[in-house]
Design brief:
290 residues; Rossmann fold; three-stranded antiparallel beta sheet; alpha/beta
Length: 290
């Protein structure tokens, strides 16, 4: 079936699921002259009169929304907790997101996500006060930007192994702008990440590296007007993860988890990671609404 939402053409295709009450849909829409696609996971209660929280899941470079929904375990979590999961696809070869400071064409991915939220709200009973975004790697970098640029619409955000910007060897930085409204932010990063290094800096003026993850956490602490800027620190997961928290005297909280010896992958409890990122992210999201 197809519909037209303003100037955005939208199509939905149902994918058969073993459990009829829980279903996956494939959607497409034309945004800014580009055909965009996405995967939706609808929980059992989607046909009831209840409004649904929505989690937007952004894959890393070379991934897809469908794979992101599955290997992160967010599809299972959506079924269990009763939220609508939407996992859009990036563009290009390999597929990715335009963040403004990473390689890629100037695609308006932030505008696309805003239009996608509106499209979903026209089709499903969404709780507009509980729109969340989570991303991994390149998708995590876009999550930083969405949380900033769409801050009035996002109830909370979570970034796994994604940088807030880049810095060249001569000290120049390219990063996101501070949000106009406070946004609760959860950042998860492995200390042994070799793809988006936890704390590396560029060594040559023409080279660039990701802004260190601890600086990304402090960016959000400043943006959310946390005082003081020194976090409360403890360990979790039997000491395998360090937790920094900015919660008191903040317009919105910031939580930063450092996974000791953690790599670039999405942390899964069943793969031996210190935490299960999906469990931790949903627990964080469910505490916040816009």
């Amino acid at each position: 079936m197809a519909a037209v939402c303003g100037s955005v053409t939208v199509g939905i295709a149902l994918v058969a699921e073993p459990v009829a009450a829980q279903r996956t849909e494939r959607g497409r829409m034309r945004w800014d002259g580009v055909e965009r696609t996405y995967t939706i996971r609808l929980p059992r209660i989607a046909d009831s009169a209840r409004t649904l929280p929505v989690v937007i899941a952004l894959h890393g470079r070379g991934g897809s929304g469908e794979r992101m929904a599955h290997w992160s375990g967010l599809d299972v979590k959506a079924d269990a907790e009763g939220f609508l999961l939407v996992a859009p696809d990036g563009t290009g070869i390999p597929r990715g997101w335009y963040t403004g400071f990473a390689p890629g064409g100037a695609i308006d991915d932030v505008g696309f996500i805003g239009a996608l939220i509106d499209t979903l709200a026209s089709r499903y009973r969404l709780d507009r006060g509980r729109v969340y975004v989570a991303g991994h790697s390149n998708g995590g970098a876009l999550t930083h930007r969405i949380a900033s640029d769409l801050s009035a619409r996002i109830a909370a955000a979570a970034v796994v192994a994604g940088a807030v910007g880049v810095r060249s060897g001569d000290g120049r930085t390219t990063t996101i702008e501070p949000p106009r409204a406070p946004v609760p932010m959860l950042i998860i990063h492995g200390s042994a990440d070799s793809v988006v290094p936890y704390d590396a800096i560029a060594l040559t003026p023409r080279g660039s590296r990701a802004i260190p993850a601890p600086e990304g956490a402090r960016f959000w602490a400043r943006a959310n007007e946390c005082a003081p800027l020194e976090p409360q620190r403890d360990t979790i997961a039997s000491g395998r993860a360090l937790r920094d928290r900015w919660e008191s005297r903040c317009r919105a909280p910031v939580v930063f988890l450092t996974l000791r010896d953690g790599d670039h992958g999405w942390p899964r409890g069943d793969s031996g990671a210190a935490i299960d990122a999906t469990d931790v992210i949903w627990e964080f999201f469910r505490q916040h609404r816009r």
